[in-house]
Write a structure and sequence with these properties.
about 450 residues; mainly alpha; 20 helices; 5 strands; globular
Length: about 450
Amino acid sequence: MTMRPAVGALLLLWGCATSSTTTQRATLPPAPPVFLEDDWEGALREAKEGGRPLFVEAWAPWCQSCRSLRATVLTSPALGAWAERFVWLTMNTDAQSSLPFLQRYPVDTWPTLLVLEPEHGAVITRSLGAVSEPQLLGLLAQAERTFQRGHGGTELLARADELALQGRHAEAAQGYGKALTGLAAEDARRAGTVVSWLKSLSASGSAEECVRVAGRELPGLARADDRTRLLYVGMGCALDADTEEARAARDRFAEEARWGLDAPEDALSPLQRSSLFELACEAYELAGDTAGLRGMTERWWTFLGAQARHARNAEERAALDSHRVMAAALRDRPDEALALLERSARELPGDYNPPARLATLYAMAGRHDEALAASERALALAPRIARGTVLAGHARILLARGEGARAERLLTEALEELDSTPGMPREHLQRRALEHALQRVRASNAAPANQ
């Protein structure tokens, strides 16, 4: 998830514990799951032949929540016990080959995790946003029980998920509310169901009700990782609703976020903790509390630095790069983030995200020629269907250089190209990014004539 104004799983090397002086052989831990990549139909066939449910991770290369999930949670040794009980699939929603999958299972939150029954591909479990390792293990256990026993009283939840996938969010919101009454407080699906309910309320334009539901459900969630998921979505709704009730909820959610930062280290994933820093900084900024914002931003920057130092590999380190860009912007020190982003660009030479984020940092620093060069490197690496978000940033740089006509032409041509792509959903995020950027560019280009 990004601040409001992103390959198959890496396998861990396993160490073997040796016995002391006996001839007893060491017990090897079960191998972690191996993910099929972008082959939904093949994965579904394999699941059907093996009589196993299909786990799907829908992700995008630009999504830092996805990258963090893939670099940490999905590589956890704990998943080894589940490797043979599911078929594992990862779907890059920015890959053109994923368009048939997206027509069946539209994605508007990244990452989205699905568990499908193999016979017809019906959704058993749907989870929105990044999860911690305990949350994922709970999701797998509950999905397996549901698969083995049939829906077992979860028909309302399955129907709500189906309505949400169809874009019928007002009906889905009603369904999630009813389904929640049948889920016990300790049910692993409860937090995810609340998040889905909030997302459908938001998508149907019911931001005020979303705020009320978030405030009502928050006290019932005992775990810090569950509360963090709810806080992030609830704060989004509170920002969308310009009411006294929503403003009070923002203060409450911000206080909850600050408390959450004191949770034990293993209670939250690094991404979840970083998201709490984001929420707290956002709240201070909205309140005009300059001193509070400065202090919280410095804490966030220190945390991000520690995560970079302790990361096991380049992918894990780069997973929080977009948060580093946000924190650098809040500190008004974009140059201080350049070294880490340049390192990501060197260590992940085929990834378009590091140069795209470098372009953002250069633009913040007023170094527009360097920003344009970095953005052009990103565009050269980004697949055609995934270029919308990069092109939006490229257009902002062109505007800053006084090249508004060029920016408008670039975005118009990119939209026309996407429209000619067979099977491209009208609501695909990359298309929405281009439309929003084009609207802003046109407004900027028209402004002098209207003054």
